[in-house]
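P.,

For your records, the input lines for the assembly:
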Amino acid sequence: MPKFAIHNKEDNVGVAIEDIRAGEEAQGIYIEDKSNGPVVKAVEDIPLGHKIALRDIKAGKEVIKYGRVIGVAVKDIKAGEHVHTHNLKSLRWGNLSKR
Amino acid sequence: MNSVAGKYPTIKAYVRPDGSVGVRNHVVIIPIDDLSNTAALGVAKLIRGTVAIPHPYGRLQFGKDLDLLFHVLSGTGANPNVYGAIVIGIEDNWANKVADGIAKTGKPVYVFGIEGRGDLKTIEEAARKAKELVQDAGEQQRTEVDLTNIMFSIKCGESDTTSGLASNPALGYTVDKLVDLGNTVMFGETSELTGAEDIVAGRIKDPELRSKFMRIYNEYIKVIEEGGVDLLGSQPTEGNIKGGLSTIEEKALGNIQKLGTRPITCVADYLDPVPRNGGLCFVNTSSAAAEAVTLFAAKGSVLHFFTTGQGNVVGHPIIPVIKISANPKTIKAMSEHIDVDVSDLLELKVSLQEAGDRIFNYALRVMNGRLTAAEALQHDEFSPIKLYVSA
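Structure tokens returned:
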């Protein structure tokens, strides 16, 4: 049974469609054709609806979902890690102080 | 309304004097200003079957902000879900302005001013008229009409990643169907398009409309940024973040899944009217649920589709709001608020078409008279948008 869904084949994150436990070998599924995606070992708990890194994402690199940039990694993210506000920041908002 | 047999699904609805089609038959009591809320509520308390729409605005507003309030008040009275209206203001003058906008549709509307008369006399006189209106409204019959030239609206709220994965794409399927049948479907949430505004713009084929959309979007963002702030901390909201949405870009890309796939054929700023056969139509709104639904209803939407992830409970006094969710935890914990469960689409157990048809078929039932959860629970949020300070 798939545990996370991937919107677009270019994405480097998937979305948990069930709660995923740390250590679990989670199966991914591509939404567009329902084919199997990668199997990723969760390094921490990923709650339903939250994102899991499909591969290592270096700090400063773009996070891709829907085939589009949804922000930038602010620290190194390992495959299987939870991707959220602690390691992913918007490129649109939150940067006004730096302008 | 006649057409090639079988081309359109039919519904049983109310045809108003101006030919517009409503799915409810309300008598609405409209206060023009905060001071008139007490009298409006007094009338609604006395007369069965009336609905008052109190709000905190209307005194010493000016310019575009005042125009927008009048637009919302008269638009709400003119909405095809309304049989007739009572308008109450502290002064007659402004109340008459709003009533004139309602009277244009050919439906009955009566105006009462409180100044020089007091609340109690106003309530009595207005209640006598309201009584006549509800008795007459009761004789209005639903008739069979084609599902075309009817106005709808869509918005999501307390979204999470299940919205972008399942409930929004399923609603998008329904939206395509409604648009193909020759109806209007309005969407808005201007600031929440940030990160996907180029995709929305790309779906507007008419170059003039496209630049109008970009002007509206850029002005909205400019207003936000002029305060030296941005929306980090407000957008995504706490509820969005709890549900797994991390950035505004991610939220916007999930948001636009509900727009379906058809071209955007109409772009309306705050005061612009929206046509009955407008297709997919962008309306400049805030992203606050009640404010957006209130503006859509004022522009003529008779039914609103609302997708939610973490569980938004919004409703409206005169238009049914259908709640759609794909989040199994929310559906379980907040079951009394959810009308359509599409969690099996999240689990990929059904096709997008099956989930979309489920929403469409439920909407037909609601149009025919089934109360939505928000209606049964008396979620009657009426929230006009205020643009700036009063004088």
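Two observations worth noting. Residues 59 and 75 of chain A are 4 Å apart (CA to CA). The beta strands of chain A are 4-6, 13-16, 25-30, 36-41, 51-53, 62-65, 68-73, 82-83, 88-89.

Regards
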